[in-house]
Amino acid sequence: MRCEELHEALVQARYGAAEESAEQTSHLASCGECRAFASEQTKLDSVLAHSESMSAGPGFDTRFFARLQAEQASNARAGRAARSRRSWLWWSLVPTLTAAAAAALMLWRKPETQSVPQEDLALATDLELVQELPVVEHLDEAEALEVLAELDVAELDKLAHEQPVGDSVKEAKP
Amino acid sequence: MHDPDAALMLAFARGQEQAFVTLYRSYRDRMVSYCARLLRDRAQAEEAAQDVFLKLYRARESYQPQSRFSTFLYRIATNHCWNLRARLDNKLVQRDGTTHERAVSPGRDALAALENSELHDALAAALDQLPDKQRSALVLVHYEGLSYKDTAGVLDTSEGAVKSLIHRARETLTRELATFVSAEGEVQHAV
User: Fold this and answer.
1) Domain residues of chain A, as ranges?
2) Rounded to an integer, what distance in angstroms lies between the CA atom of residue B53 and that of residue B77?
3) B154-160 long-range contacts, Cβ below 8 Å, gap at least 24?
4) SS3 of B87, please?
5) B138 by DSSP, 3-state: which?
6) Residue A36 contacts B, CB cutoff 8 Å
7) Residue B1 has what pLDDT?
8) pLDDT digits (tens, 9 = 90+) for B149-171
């Protein structure tokens, strides 16, 4: 065993991190340098013992719990302020959100109105009016007049004497 | 691994404030003492210990019992004290860029004020000169009684690294306190 190894082992043994072995005992018995080191370490422990443990002084607890209480109060204030900020933020966003919702609604509805151009709307209105015209109500009869145009005059005369025009037209319709 | 303190912390996380008070009472003096050994100033140490408990209070929701509760708490304290020391060291760097040793005034230095002895001053100064990790490892193992494994957990390093940190710290202290640590005789009180 080398002297350096023994020195390390002797220090560790003081703190219960190693046990003294027979090899170490044998080395110590034969090495003056290591015996001197071991003796120095024992005396160093005596010197280190002069550093006494300290305990908390008077008023320590009072000061600590005052600091703790102050911190808790500060945290509570900070929490309230944060909640208040969140609440203010929410209410400040209400008009914006409302406007955004309205805009979204308008955009959603706009394509329906845009899909029917004004001209088409006018045309559709006109068509409705046209459908209400008396002539259009009897459009099938007007169409029948075209059939009449294709008939011979003789036949027309014959028809005129046999039955009313409307009835014959209706029968003549395909 | 049954850790009653971890169970208390979990109870606190569930809303049992009394569990926090129990932990506070159990660790209060240990935290003050630990912070004092890392910072050397009693007023700073007490404020730092309070900071540690405030950090613990805030950590209730994120706490995960992956290691012993004491390891968790000492880690908070260690990191906090290192940050405080770094800030203090920055203040001590003068405009010309030279670093001045931390002043040890008997009125401010808790350990010196308690004993007012040369040995005390020398020990406090020697501990103060150790690098942060070496000092923390030594204080955790030697004074706080933590195992190498738990100390490795606090310092976020390996057990092997802790062994090395302790060994180097003791070597430095033996050298720095040679006046008091002599192989020839008993502890020398140079008063």
Assistant:
1) 3-47, 76-115, 119-172
2) 9
3) B154/B71, B154/B74, B154/B75, B154/B78, B155/B75, B155/B78, B156/B75, B157/B133
4) helix
5) helix
6) yes
7) 64
8) 999 999 999 999 999 999 999 99
Judging contacts by C-beta atoms under 8 Å, the chain B residues touching residue A48 are: 123, 142-143, 173
CB contact under 8 A, A54 and B187: no
User: For A47, which of B123, B143, B166 is closest by C-beta distance?
Assistant: B123
Q: What are the chain B neighbours of A51 within 8 Å (beta carbons)?
A: 37, 111, 120, 123-124, 127, 143
**H or E stretch at A150:** helix A139-150
Q: How far is A99 from chain B (nearest CA, A)?
A: 42
**Residues of chain B contacting A64 with CB distance shorter than 8 Å:** 24, 50, 53
**B57/B14 Cα distance (integer angstroms):** 12
CA trace torsion A157, A163, A167, A171 (10° rounding): -70
Nearest-CB residue to A44 (from B32, B45, B173): B173
| Shortest CA gap B4–chain A (Å) | 23
As a dihedral over the C-alpha atoms of residue A155, residue A157, residue A162, residue A168, rounded to 10 degrees, the angle is 60
What is the model's pTM? 0.67
Nearest of A135, A172, A174, A143 to residue A156 by alpha carbon: A172
Measure in Å the smallest separation between the Cα of B95 and chain A Cα atoms.
Answer: 34
Which of the two residues, A75 and A148, has the higher pLDDT score?
A75
Q: Which domains does chain B have, with CATH numbers?
A: 4-176 (1.10.1740.10)
Query: How many other CB atoms are found less than 10 A from the CB of residue A132?
Result: 9
The dihedrals phi and psi of A4, each to the nearest 5 degrees, come to: -60, -40
